[in-house]
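Anyone able to model this chain together with ribose-5-phosphate?
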Amino acid sequence: MKIILGPASTQLGQKIAELLNAEAVPVAFKTFPDGESYVRLEGEVQDEEAVIVQTTSPPQDPKLIQLALLADAAKRNGAKKVWAVVPYLAYARQDKVFLQGEALSIETIANMLEVAGVDRLTTVNVHQEKILARFPFPANTVSAIPLLAEHFMRKGLEKSFVLAPDKGALHLVEQAEKVLRGGCGYLDKQRDRYTGQIHMEKKTLDVKDKTVIVFDDIISTGSTIVAAAKILRELEAVKIYVACVHPLLIGDAEKRIIDAGVEEIVGTDSVSSRVSKASLAPLIAKELVK
Ligand code: R5P
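re: yes, here you go
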């Protein structure tokens, strides 16, 4: 097995290669003056299982194209199998047609990757696991929630209450609760499909005088977490932390969240950011040799 260091995840790929004692294949890359992407493998993959580690966080489209080009390059250079490890899978939130006339974006992306040469895909905490069954090649998701919860254990936050900002994230906090063992719950969130604005109602939760950790898969604009933090303050939670797998943190999301009274945001290196304090490398390395 050789690990191709996708330009979007060079450090993570290197860590995975080190953990597996596998050869890392560097990638030369550039963007042409007209905006097109260029990649070149700087190592051999002939007769190898080639694992491309490449996240597709913003800017998603050039990173997806790099991934597709790398899959093509690996196959052209004799790789017997191409396994794409895509920690943040772009377009996964458009996993159904919500409004008439829309594309089913994630299926389009999966089909594009298949044509490029991808034989298998692993991602991390994909938004809706069931969409992976519709991919044209085997695809699975692994969960980084236990490792995030363990990060908080090491900070001495055992027995914290863990909260999902919407019912869809309840399965995440149930995983976290198994580690932290301080109870869990969820808020009710609605999102306007046209404006993207969210609405969250205060509800009864046993968080008064407690430390609460809000777990979510993605932080994008931060609006979800800001709304959850406001409710938690009204409910007199004593301290609020945030854990997320994919810290996209668009614009001033981080500042808005801290200004909303959150002590700290802890994310993974699915997306490189200032809050990427927990590495996915051990989780992914384990998956690659399972
Ligand atoms: C949506 O259901 C996701 O789980 C996240 O809650 C959402 O993507 C976060 O987006 P934002 O940070 O823009 O509120």
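The two ends are 13 Å apart (CA to CA).
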